[in-house]
What does this fold into?
Amino acid sequence: MWDFLFQGFAVAVSPLNIALVMGGALLGTLFGALPGIGPINGIAILMPLAYTLGLPPESALILLAGIYCGSEYGGRMSSILLNVPGDAGAVMTTLDGYPLAQKGLAGPALGMSAIASFVGSTLAIIGLTLFAPLLAMVAVKFGPAEFFALMIFAFASMSAMMGKDPLKTLIGAILGIIIATVGVDSGTGVLRFTFDMPELYDGIDFVVLIIGMFAISEILLMLEHSFDKSSDKGMAPIGRVMVSMKEVMSCKWSMLRSGVIGFVIGVLPGTGASVASAVAYTTEKRIVDKEDTFGTGDMRGLAAPEAANNAAAAGSFVPMLTLGIPGSGTTAILLGALMLYNIQPGPMMFSEQPVIVGGLIASLYLGNLVLLALNLPLAGVFARVLTVPKWILVPCIAVLAFVGVFQLHSDLHAIYLMLIIGVFGYLLRKFGFSLAPIVLGFVLGGLMEQNLRRALAISGGESGILWESALSIGLWIAAIIVMVAPWLLGRFKSKAVAAK
Amino acid sequence: MSTFSFASLRRPLLAVALAGAASVSYAQGGKPECLAPAKPGGGYDLTCRLASNGLEQASLLETPMLVNYMPGGIGAVAFNHVNGVRKGDPDLIVAASTGAALNLALGKFGRQYDASNVRWVGALGVDYGAVVVAADAPWQNLDELMKELQSNPTSVVIGAGGTVGSQDWMKAALMAKSGGVDPRSLRYVSFEGGGESLAALLGGHIQVFTGDLAELKPQLDSGTIRVLAALSDERMDGAYAEIPTAKEQGYDVQWPIWRGYYMGPEVSDADYQAWVERLQELDGKPEFAEMREARGLFPMSKFGSDFDTYVKDQVEEFRGLAKEVGLVK
It folds into this structure.
């Protein structure tokens, strides 16, 4: 049964394919690092090129897979350095990545996140190699009711983030859910909160939301500081460059757990890197954050979402390769690329197209090695970005963001919307709200509503469907445990103290 | 000092941003462009790529055709854009499909617009709707499924990739109507696209999926699904030859999903005609037939006034159907 992998490595180590995987990894890192251009656009731009160049199918797929993995690595850079997520999966990375950079640990943070990305991807690729066909059959058992329970679990885990100001976290998450309701109602086709503007029919675009929320509000904050000299924070210092072995070891369990969580969530069709990194982060906070240092620059809080989003990217290949069902927007495009070459992914692909499946999996292994080798030594170089004054850097990022968003929409309304959201985000930050719960509420809330509606449409309105299957019951129990356990533990502890 | 640095920076930066943005999309001066009214990767993207790759391969254009994206309202944003900003652009074609005709009929592109607000150039390919069940489903043919629906419409869960009122829902609604079942009594679930719907079918969460033929090939080859009926006029050939049409099973439902293009309302007759001829010539090339097949599309040759009449008739027909199935009053 290992034949396909050996054949695959034989294909992947040809000079052309090695060059392609390296080139793809580099380009992908760039696409991921630039806000507004994510893996979907990167692949959509390059796919016709691969076809026009006349690359054989396995080489084209290897190039595109390199871009995909690379962009998951690249997304973290602007999160850590600028507090602006490069793509959807990198939102959680800002929570501890940016505080680390502000402490002068940008180099180690970039290094640590590269290692976490590598560990997460590698775990997921091993999972893909060993269990793909089996997992795919389990993944389709995940229906609307199970997804709804998963979202409840994710929201329950978010209570771990409530930290200093529970009320503001709650309001933030609810705001996110409210923003997610704009657009065509998926169940009935009725327009909600669109004010007769066709630009709002599809709802608020995720890229527009995060660029507005993070990048534009960051510029506004900077502007304000530039008026007030006394609060001028100045540049973050550049401390040491390399991540230490001790730091890596302190994160090993966080990386392994998050890698597994990310892979499992990535395998489910319809959820992706953003949900995976959110669940991984909040789970880790529950498990390891005893001193309440998550959110203030804890390496483990950085390693968890990075391992998870990379693992999810690799996980989304499972339903694509084994069932011919794309698990994410990016794999949908990869599926289109395969169809261009008259290759139909499906249950028989592993036996009928061993060269392509094997070559793809082998190049995922190689691509990750390349990305680690590329990213570790370069961490110091990228960290130098911080020596560029922010008043130059952030407007540059904003220009890229404007062009990126415009390229996505060919329409100025998206730009206006981004600016409005930016001002809104700025006000929220002034009032002491954290942005992550809003973005999470947006992502999870949208999925939660859709799946609740679907589940109830299937059952004809019977709410019993929501806790019918063993899978959903398990998730409900897990949700209750994460909500109640800390409180119970707290009471238990205080009783023990009182007894003494 | 610091205020000054901002004020002096803001204007140039904004200018750079806008200039960069402008060069991305409003490329003028004989650069042919296809606008896909959706995000990259979907059916409209495919429609644009079909034209741009085909025309390039056949050397029918001097400069390569640019593909740009304008997502929003399943084409509503682009339709408004062409009617507002680029009414007479001789180099712009916009991807459209049966879904655009349906939205026009339902007034979803804006009440003030109908099919005569743009110039319909032609269609290069077509796909057909399909009624799909899992391989282990109790129904062997469309008739058995319809009997079940007639006796108890809510006993079967139907799912597909669009909301109520979308193409996918229309397929289910018309199928129900052809068997005398009230479309409004169906138990219908909408997913995000065909991929999620297929996953739900394979996982047993829905029993019937009203999809499109071309996207079903991998599952068809592997035997995990059964296609009860193709919603085409006649049987397709090749891998689909075994699939009976709904019509031959006694249920007269057809749902072609054509893939075509329109231009702005004020494009000159000469420019319009040039595009009609260009697409017509492309359609005749054997290499293009191969490319179309690789993208899972069947031939459909309708161009110029022929296509224009076809779309306008279809919009009228959909208006009537929408009333019959209770979508509009």
Observations:
- Chain B has a mean pLDDT of 87.
- The longest helix of chain B spans residues 2-25.
- The domain at 128-255 of chain B is CATH 3.40.190.10 (D-Maltodextrin-Binding Protein; domain 2).
- Chain B touches chain A through 71 residues (CB under 8 Å).
